[in-house]
Specification:
17 strands; nine-stranded parallel sheet; 15 helices; alpha/beta; about 40% helix; homodimer
């Protein structure tokens, strides 16, 4: 095992990352931002349109959330960046005082936009709502995120679709690198409304050599931290897990490593074991709206199933969330059947609580020096169940 | 002015009503129940299907809610009374520890049911969901409410549609009286899961003599308190307000008077002035879901209106609700435009807060001996605005 990579540049003033303990690859860290402290590993709920769907800021916090993610693309389309600024910035709009990480918008452009024109300059496209043109460049996405008032901004990367040729992935690595250089150059020209860190994004698909190339190039640019991109684009589960393993250790040991767009207890376990510190995913809130509630062992319940109708027990006995402490499976079944808003709220609170609790337990295991037992116990129960 | 009517019978053990102050007809009262104390005048939000739509119990409480109303008919259809009982009763299902008043289900039968057969025995009908038969009798509606675990149950009354002949209304008064006698008779046979008060309901439409007849008959039956029924069935606004005036003083001074199905600041003002103490209405939550938010002067805002898009001000400057303290009109406009669940939650919190705050102010005005100023000031501002 080679010596861990160290970051070559300091973090932006007001930001800091400290590792309190580590075991194998797994780490218990503390990411400090001007908007608050994040104990890692940490999951970031997704607030697509200026709200984590169905939840008030207090409810978001109660689930254990320390930082939320918001989508630059959706906000740029509606209500628009100028409107967000006029209303006092994204924190004010969301009613959320804590840290906010915003994505660059690039991922949505590749997946939602149509008539995209990708060039060296950037991505020109028509938005998915009214077809209005929007130009995302390495510079403009940082301008937008600065105007939103993001705490952590992501650079524009080129994220090739799953299944494309090695050649395409290699080209995306090169372009992502050139865009990363431009993003860094542009930082000195940003009109900031509050301190903002910028994270670089590594690409390279499932190819070890391309991941290495991407990391080596990226680490020469003074970003605050680095993310693993391009892992949730449909290469399949095995590819996802192996890509995490070959990507995470390439990023600086002394900086938070963010695995973009991934969430799930098994994924958390494997990624944390490889040294990942931050996650985001729409699954806990989206699944909650579809009546799928997580259990702490990695399984889930379909609350619309008639077997829950008269069940007076909570979704999960040892869960301290509002849904489990105040409601029975029977009530949740009823609320989901009746499409009551409260079902979506309670389900989202529960699913986020399960995610956050799992990562807190992982953190504690690292701090207590029992990470390997924790990991192996969970994974063996998981394989017993699925086997 | 004749001497105030007094109740002839004591209240059920565990229940009490005390009047702390009164001025003209208006009173500041305290209704004590085994589930908690209600300072009157009080508004009851409606939890149709086991939830006040979009709100958690804590949010309901934060708006100033002291007691909620739940609909027997809807619960009897889905999830069913047996299911509610199996799940631990209505308080457990709703996650609400405070007092719950349930209606008899009669009103929904008259308005939602089809193929109703009204006879002396009761109302036989097919429910609006799957056409299953359900029989509501003066006895069965109390059995159902007892099984739900209601704190305050309402008797079955015959509520004639608006616009029917005086003769029809007179017949409904007579039948309502016979049903009230049977309801009272049945109380000794109820299988109670917790202490339950029972309120009688006066009918008589817009006719002063029929209201008097109904009240005189009703007051001979030992109910815990008495409600004014049949005022929200489409006789028009003037009829509504005048019926309140001729009905409320007929009911015992020393018991809470409940005006069924009415809500709105002007209605509150006129009804409280006539001695009404309790209200319920779906308007604050329903309107909130339709982007109509109340202001304290009795007017309202359509939050979907484009003029709010970039407005950084709160809905109401001096409102201490979550929507007003944490969000701007611009954000609420955005959330309503995007049909975000959070809009419905915040809007409901605001509208309920406006209702409750208004009644708290009315109560304080009575306690402080400035009721007439409070009333006249509000009504003159209202007529200035609408004039």
């Amino acid at each position: 095992m080679s010596a861990p990579v160290q970051a070559k540049f300091p973090m932006t003033a007001g930001f800091n990352f400290a590792i309190e303990a580590n075991s194998d690859g797994a780490r218990a860290g503390v990411l400090t931002t001007p908007r608050g402290v994040i104990q890692t590993p940490a999951f970031m709920p997704v607030g697509t349109q200026g709200t984590v769907k169905g939840l008030t800021p207090d409810q978001i916090k109660t689930t254990g959330t320390q930082i939320v993610l918001s989508n630059t693309y959706h906000l740029a389309v509606r209500p628009g960046v100028d409107t967000v600024r006029t209303l006092g910035g994204l924190h004010k709009v969301m009613g959320w005082e804590g840290p906010i990480l915003t994505d660059s918008g690039g991922f949505q452009v590749f997946s939602l936009g149509h008539r995209n024109k990708i060039s060296e300059h950037g991505v020109e496209f028509r938005n998915h709502v009214d077809g209005s043109p929007l130009l995302l460049t390495p510079e403009s996405v940082l301008d937008i995120q600065a105007r939103l008032g993001s705490t952590i901004a992501m650079i524009l990367d080129e994220c090739p679709a799953g299944g494309v040729s090695r050649d395409e992935v290699a080209k995306a690595v090169v372009r992502t690198h050139r865009w990363a250089l431009r993003a860094h150059e542009h930082r000195s020209r940003l009109d900031l409304f509050e301190p903002m860190a910028v994270f670089g994004i590594m690409q390279g698909g499932v190819h070890e050599d391309l991941r290495k190339e991407s990391a080596q190039q990226l680490l020469e640019i003074p970003f605050d931290a680095y993310a693993v991109g391009g892992v949730s684009v449909g290469e399949g589960r095995d590819a996802l897990l192996s890509t995490i393993g070959l990507s995470a250790p390439l990023l600086p040991f002394d900086r938070p490593r963010y695995l973009m767009g991934v969430g799930g207890l098994e994924e958390f376990m494997i990624a944390v074991d490889q040294g990942i510190d931050m996650f985001d995913c729409v699954i806990p809130t989206r699944n909650a709206r579809n009546a799928s509630l997580f259990l702490g062992d990695g399984s889930s319940l379909n609350m619309k199933n008639a077997r829950h109708k008269q069940d007076p027990n909570p979704v999960e006995e040892d869960c301290d969330c509002l849904a489990c402490t105040r409601y029975s499976r029977g009530t949740l079944h009823h609320l989901y059947q009746r499409k009551e808003i409260l079902a979506y709220t309670l389900g989202s609170i529960h699913n986020l609580s399960v995610f956050h609790r799992f990562l807190r337990k992982a953190r504690t295991a690292v701090l207590d020096g029992v990470w390997e037992d924790f990991r192996d116990g969970f994974l063996s129960r998981l394989s017993l169940r699925s086997g």
